[in-house]
Each structure stands twice: as C-alpha cells, then as structure tokens.
Amino acid sequence: MKIISLCLFQWRGNNITEPKLLATGFESSTFGFFKKKTVKEWCEFVSFTLAKRTNESQRQSVKEKDYICHVYNRFDNLSAIVICDDEYPRRVAFSLINKVMDDFMDIYGNKFGDLEDYPFEQIVQLLNKFQDPNQADKLSKIQRTLDETTIILQDTIEKVLKRGENLEILVDRSELLSNQSKQFYRVAKKHNRCCTIC
C-alpha cells in the first residue's frame, strides 16, 4: 500500500478558469531515476484533469491502470487529489484529503484567494505520515488488531480440537460453566445438528 502523490488545487474563485496548483507532495522512491520526473508530471496532469472535471462538493475515485485517484472538490474552492495503489484504503485516502485541506485553511483561511503564493510544506509531511494507513488512521489500526485477535482465537480452538479433545467433553467437565450454560450449549448443538442440510 503506497501513496504516490498528493496535490492541492484552488479549483475556482477569483477569476480562476483553470485549477491552480497550490502544493504537491510526491513519493518517488519506488521509481527509477529517469522515470521520476515523468511520473511526477503524469500525477500532476491527472490531478489537474480530475480537479477540473469534478463538481463542487463531489468526491470520486477513478481507476487508472494499477492506481486509484481519489478526488474531492470542496465548497471552499479547494480540491485535493491522492493517487495511490489500488490496495490503499479508500476511507484513509479521503481522511488524508480532508486533513490536507483543513490544515491549509487553518493557515490561509482568511487570506485564501488574496495571495499569489501559498507556501505549504506540510503537504509532504502529511504524505509521509499517511504512507502507512494503519499508523495514520486509528480505525484501521483497531481493525487490524481485532483481525489479528480473531485469527489467534480461531487458531487456538482449532489446535485444541486437533489434539483429539472433544469440545462437548470439555464443556461437560468445565467447572467455569454453570449448569444453565452447559444445558444451553447442548440444546443449541442439538438444534444446529437437526437443521443441517446434507
């Protein structure tokens, strides 16, 4: 999972007829020396085209070969585009888009549209921070932890059954289960057995 580029545009307002590139971040470590410039230009061109052809307050994701381009044209004349591989989580990509626009407006909100230049080095920091979606996004990190726990639990139950131990015998012998819980287990197992379709 990798983000290739992150571009921020002013896509309308103040007599702007074409999207104006405000800031860009580019991750080029996976590309050869001679390809880096070409890939960067391609990313900026695709981002410009998507910013120009996306309606106000619209989010969209567009597949281009092995990459996905996520774009959001916000009501405040900002547009951000993330280009990443197709394994990168969509929700995290849009979280990055919102974060970059919010951080930009925190700095330039009341001056936005009045200046010619908008230095915004934070875009590279955000691009680097979001390279690992599990670290950047708390929900993804929690989900990964839950998935790992589920896998460990399933693996443990399978190992117990593989050693020849029968779950029914374990339930009957258990001192931790009340008689009511043991009875519930037997009834549930009986109902599941009678409803099995062969």
From TrEMBL:
Alphabetically sorted, this entry's keywords are: Coiled coil, Lipoprotein, Membrane, Methylation, Palmitate, Prenylation
GO terms for cellular component? Golgi apparatus
| Coiled coil (residue ranges) | none
According to the entry, every stretch annotated as the Longin domain falls at: 9-110
InterPro entries, alphabetized: Longin-like_dom_sf (IPR011012), Longin_dom (IPR010908), V_SNARE_CC (IPR042855)
Single annotated GO MF: SNAP receptor activity
Q: How does it sit in the membrane?
A: Lipid-anchor
Source organism, top-level taxon: Eukaryota
Where in the cell is the protein located? Endomembrane system
Q: What is its main location?
A: membrane
Q: Where is the V-SNARE coiled-coil homology domain?
A: 138-198
Q: Name one Pfam family in it.
A: Synaptobrevin
Q: Single Gene Ontology BP term?
A: endoplasmic reticulum to Golgi vesicle-mediated transport
Give yes or no: UniProt keyword Coiled coil.
Answer: yes
Family as reported in the entry's similarity comment: Belongs to the synaptobrevin family.
Q: List the PANTHER family.
A: SYNAPTOBREVIN HOMOLOG YKT6
Query: Protein name, please?
Result: Synaptobrevin
